[in-house]
Amino acid sequence: MAFPKTFYRWRPHPWHGLEVGEDHPRIVNAYIEMTPFDAVKYEVDKTTGYLRVDRPQLTSSMTPTLYGFIPQTYCATRVHGLSAKSECGDTDPLDICVITERPINRGEVILRARVIGGIQMIDNGEADDKIIAVLDNDQFWKEAMDVKDIPPALLERLRHYFATYKLVPGQPSDVHIETIYGREQAYSVIEAAMEDYTEVYG
After folding, report:
1. Given this model, what pLDDT does residue 3 score?
2. Do the bridges between strand 109-123 and strand 66-69 make them parallel or antiparallel, or are there none, so unpaired?
3. I need a labelling partner for 3 at 20 to 30 A (CA). Which of 21, 53, 62, 180 fits?
4. Domains and CATH numbers, the chain
5. What CA–CA distance (Å, rounded) separates 12 from 73?
6. Distance between CA atoms of 202 and 198, rounded to whole angstroms?
7. 142: pLDDT confidence band, cut at 50, 70 and 90?
8. Are the C-beta atoms of residues 80 and 199 closer than 8 Å to each other?
9. Residues 149-198: pLDDT tens digits?
């Protein structure tokens, strides 16, 4: 029996086997690793593609949005070039935070996300940008086209979460939030991460 062209006989690796999305960088596919209900930091295992437990959350704060990555992206020289104070890219897929009105309480889901901005974060000298997006078919957020359309309180929650999510009590933090940028800069970061991915993985 022949399988249809749109059918994956084997589960694709979420980083390498899924597509960025036909309408990128405006709308991208996002693979969700964590939800606002998770007290444990989950991360895709780069070898198997399954979710692995990275660590329990180190502080009492929880991610304020869905959190995952954009498939077939990689943060290396081009992403580093857009982050003036970083020393290099973090050599991970490009992270994305997706805002929704209705709660989604499980990870390992794929969704279409409309890009509206991003957070320029530097973690131990590495460029570790976080793209900000909204669920594309969420009617509550249908007017949100740029980061300025998001309530400042929600942006501050995102800023605070990423500034503290690796904080170990009694130890200094080397995570810096440089700026929150708009849609056009986010498009540039996504395109740079796609080019970095192509250079490394073909």
Report:
1. 58
2. unpaired
3. 21
4. 27-201 (3.90.80.10)
5. 16
6. 4
7. very high
8. no
9. 999 999 999 999 999 888 777 777 889 999 999 999 999 999 999 999 99
